Amino acid sequence: MALRTDPDRIGFDPARLARIDEHFGRYVDDGRLAGWQIVVTRRGEIAHSATYGMRDREAGLPVEPDTIWRVYSMTKPITSVAAMMLWEEGRFELTDPIGRWLPEFADVRVYDKGPVTKPYTVPAVEPIRIWHLLTHMSGLTYGFAQVSVVDGLYRAAGFDLGVPVGADLAAASQGLARLPLLFQPGTGWNYGVSTDVLGRLIEVVSGQRLDEFLAARIFRPLGMTDTGWWVEEADAKRLAALYFPHPATGQAIRADALGRLALAAPDFLSGGGGLVSTAADYHRFTQFLLRGGELDGVRLLGPRTVRFMTRNHLPDGRDLASYSPTGFAETVLDGIGFGLGFAVVQDPVPSRVPSSAGEYYWGGMASTAFWVDPAEEVTAMLFTQLMPSSTHPLRPQLRQLVYSALVD
Fold first, then answer.
1. What does the alpha-carbon distance between residue 386 and residue 364 come to, in Å, rounded to a whole number?
2. Nearest CA to 282 among 184, 198, 388, 380?
3. What single DSSP character describes residue 129?
4. Exposure string (b/e) for 9-25, b if CB count within 10 Å is 16 or more?
5. Radius of gyration of the CA atoms of the chain, in A
6. Which molecular function term from Gene Ontology is one that the record holds (predicted)?
7. What is residue 291's predicted lDDT score, i.e. its pLDDT?
8. In whole angstroms, what is the distance from residue 370 CA to residue 282 CA?
9. Does residue 3 have a pLDDT over 60?
10. In the chain, how long is the greatest CA-to-CA distance?
């Protein structure tokens, strides 16, 4: 990462920034988190960078600047950038039906009524289009959400926290296409496997495996040397342990069965949640976004494309609360729109959390998060490994502390 600067010089009050460490330190001190890493920047300069606690509490290994984190759904913005790079090359239009490249989705059906044991479906009146995948308006869902009958059908077919054993991205896409959609494409918003299907589309359009495409076109050009789909044996000790809250005490306890999956190459390359990364690497990705698609002389997207991606693409300019059924998401819904791969703040007042209109962001299942605020030229990142991300209000609290420290 860039060298740390004097916070006063870029509009931050150092004493107020110190509140971040004091506040989040209490989560570690009382056992709710094992450890964390936080980075706040303005105008490309680091105003605050801190680590606290343990990356592996049981082994006594502290969080260090090069700790590797499972970023889970923070993979989605990267996959979305990859898709838009192909769009800039004229390889597709956002209005194209995905069935043009993924024929399994040519004749999808939509859930209408009935139980998991006997669902009744109807034909889709509108095909799933590429912009539907980028905005989560496809009707695809997550099995682990456990809210709808369609979620139950996903779990019955082996799509819960992952995909059926041994399925690669192509097989997963074919399996998902056989399941009904939650709603007619373009008529609602639902967090789900849309970005995984987008990853498969990238493979077909580019002629490369998703891991090869991201490595060649994004990670190597941006210098993201520690970002990938699994952790090699030589770096295994740098990987933070994964935790979940004890149901009775709230104390963070290890989730090794899920955590160890990051130590081996996966069959399924999840464009929606498969990456591991470091603060230094993801910092480079946020700076690439803040600078309008360019970093250190390497341009991957045009600035107008980045601005287009980070506008609200929900029909009629409405917010997520207007389009989303009750379900899981890595964001609040009121006052928040959705762009092409990012949540976008329309109005911070309904969520009661300070931010700027036009700020865009996302988070991951293990409580990681980032945001980019073009108006204030601020970026922030939070890394920890506690799942689910809804356990503690870490993200809104970080916003409170960062924006209250901005004093110019």
1. 10
2. 380
3. B
4. ebbbbeebbeebbeebe
5. 20
6. hydrolase activity
7. 98
8. 9
9. no
10. 64
**Residues sharing a CB contact under 8 Å with residue 323, sequence separation 6 or more, in sequence order:** 137, 188, 189, 314, 315
Q: In the 8-state DSSP scheme, what is residue 213?
A: H
Please report which helix (H) or strand (E) contains residue 382, including its range.
strand 378-383
| Distance (Å, whole) CA 165 – CA 371 | 34
CATH of domain 7-80+209-404: 3.40.710.10
pTM: 0.97
pLDDT of residue 19: 97
Q: Are 328 and 191 in contact (CB under 8 A)?
A: yes
From the list 5, 11, 57, the residue with the least C-alpha distance to 31 is: 57
Parse the chain into domains and list their residue ranges.
7-80+209-404, 92-206
For residue 199, give both structure tokens: 């990853």
Q: Are 380 and 402 in contact (CB under 8 A)?
A: yes
pLDDT digits (tens, 9 = 90+) for 138-196: 999 999 888 899 999 999 999 998 999 999 999 999 999 999 999 999 999 999 999 99
Q: Are 381 and 74 within 8 A, CB to CB?
A: no
**Secondary structure letter of residue 266 according to DSSP:** -
4 pLDDT exceeds 80?
Answer: no
Q: Give the amino acid at 4.
A: R
pLDDT for 327 beyond 90? no
Report angle CA 148, 149, 150 to the nearest 5 degrees.
Answer: 90
Mean pLDDT to the nearest integer, 63-73: 97
Question: Token match 């916003």: residue?
Answer: 399
**Phi and psi dihedrals of 113, rounded to 5?**
-170, 175
- SS3 string, 270-283, reads CCCCCEEEEHHHHH
Q: Which residues contact 48 (CB under 8 A, 6 or more apart)?
A: 7, 12, 17, 20, 38, 39, 40, 405
